[in-house]
Amino acid sequence: MSDSQARITPQEAWKRLADGNARFVEGRPNHPNQDATRRESLAEGQNPFAVIFGCSDSRLAAEIIFDLGLGDTFVVRTAGQVLSSASLGSLEYSVAELDVPLMVVLGHDSCGAVTAASQSYDSGEMPPGFVRNLVEEIMPAVVETRRSAGDDDASLADMVRTNTRQVAERMIDQSKIISAAVEENRTAVVGMFYNLRDGKAELVFSSHDLDS
Fold first, then answer.
1. N or C: the chain end with fewer CB closer than 10 Å?
2. Where would I find the H helices in the chain?
3. Half-sphere exposure of 93 (CA within 13 A, CB side)
């Protein structure tokens, strides 16, 4: 990656990401940065322009849906985008050491982790094992959505959108490293909702004006 790319603004990083998703949706991906030359150029280090904190779901491959390649994105994934000390530390590393200008929280429809949380809300029973930890972290989004829309009108997609926004806000609130980067306009944090059927990733939260 060139020096000019390394110093792109959050707005420029956002445009690059949005343009890549548009190509993917339209079925005309460029498949950039996926050849032997690119691979060799990254052997001594990385300089991604964004970090994507997405769900572990197999249908949510970040580099594919944003039409990116090797070295473009630093990717962290957990079921339901649940934050932990390890995932938050990885996100802080991307800001403190890699100086990424854009942080993306990426949720999607038909999310199994959010479905489990919604089912626990209805049944009053928690799942066994460490899946319980996932449900406990996602439950605030389920509760907020259900209370806002009403139990009968709250959709799973709306719960995912709420969870995505809450995770993005939590990243900023809980991490001094991330919040400082946001306050200094070095990094923007966005939340996106991915539609599995049409491939479109829509913006549901942003810490900055990305159109300027």
1. C
2. 3-6, 10-26, 36-41, 62-65, 85-96, 112-123, 131-149, 156-174, 176-183
3. 13
Residues 6 or more apart whose Cβ sits within 8 Å of residue 7: none
Question: Is residue 1 pLDDT above 60, yes or no?
Answer: no
- Within-domain flag for 211: no
Q: Is 212 among the domain residues?
A: no
In a domain, 103, yes or no: yes
> How many angstroms separate the CA atoms of 212 and 198, rounded?
28
> What integer is the mean pLDDT of 109-123?
95
Is 208 among the annotated ligand-binding positions?
A: no
| Number of structural domains the chain divides into | 1
15 near 23, Cβ under 8 Å? no
Whether residue 55 is annotated as binding a ligand: the answer is yes
pLDDT in tens, 44-86: 999 999 999 999 999 999 999 999 999 999 999 999 999 999 9
Range of the domain at 49: 3-206
**11 within some domain:** yes
